[in-house]
Amino acid sequence: MSFSSRIVRVVTHITDPNLNVSAYYEKTLLIVILGIDAVPRNFRLLEELERGEKGIGDGTVSYGMDDGDDIYMRSWTGTIIGPHNTVHEGRIYQLKLFCDKDYPEKPPSVRFHSRINMTCVNHESGMVEPKKFGLLANWQREYTMEDILTQLKKEMAAPHNRKLVQPPEVCNAVTILFRTYRGMPPKSFFFYHLCMASLLLCTPLLSIYISGMLFN
User: Fold this and answer.
1) Consecutive sets of 10 residues in the chain, 216 residues long: mean pLDDT of each?
2) In angstroms, how far apart are the furthest CA atoms of the chain?
3) How far apart are the first and last CA of the chain?
4) How is 73-117 classified by DSSP, letter by letter?
5) How far, in Å, CA of 123 to CA of 130, rounded?
6) What is the pLDDT of residue 125?
7) 3-class SS of residue 48
8) Do residues 134 and 155 lie in contact, with contact meaning Cβ atoms separated by under 8 Å?
9) Predicted pLDDT of residue 40
10) All domains of the chain in start order, with CATH
11) Which of 111, 115, 39, 33 is CA-nearest to residue 73?
């Protein structure tokens, strides 16, 4: 894709009335103008961001950016809902993905924020070890963060992982919410954060209300 074509593509994104205008596209336009080398990487990540916001499959895998002000789009959070008929069923795993400046030529680092017992995950750090995880070991430029999360979910259901004893689960309000509405899985990462934000907002307000009822 030529330099002029890339500029046209960004401008099209920004001016398209059917898309939500965001700072990502404006910042990327600036990157296009100032540094050609940054263009392929950021266009790729913008495409992945759009894909993540629209939702992936049945909603059991999702991801999104951590910091909207980071023009290099490095830090991401992924979520995997454990597959059925495994020890992971009903569990919600959160992961951190870091896309350095050489992404997608090189894979992102992947670390489980939630505790999990898998053959490809370091038990102490939660890092997914590339030598033990084929997708990272044989990384190709065409692979995406969605591919990583989807393959990790498949690994959970693999014979060598599906019955491994897991660490005690730390159950929180978001986990309870997902289990309550298990029949209606979230369609996007946005829904996950909307639920979490609502809980964080409502919990203290509810506490204040109950305290007022008790002591008045």
Assistant:
1) 50 52 52 52 91 85 92 94 95 96 96 96 96 96 96 97 89 51 47 59 58 58
2) 70
3) 68
4) --EEEEEEEPPTTSTTTT-EEEEEEE--TTTTTSPPEEEESS---
5) 14
6) 95
7) helix
8) no
9) 80
10) 56-189 (3.10.110.10)
11) 39
Would you give the DSSP letter of residue 168? Answer: P
Contacts of 92 (CB under 8 A, 6+ apart): 79, 80, 81, 82, 114, 174, 175, 178
Find where tokens 């992961």 sit: 95
Task: Please report where in the chains the tokens 């430029």 appear, as a residue.
Answer: 141
93 and 175 Cβ atoms separated by less than 8 Å: no
- Listed residue (103, 88, 100, 108) closest to 161, CA to CA: 88
d(CA 19, CA 195): 23
Q: How far apart are CA 69 and CA 155, in angstroms?
A: 33
Question: Do residues 56 and 146 lie in contact, with contact meaning Cβ atoms separated by under 8 Å?
Answer: yes
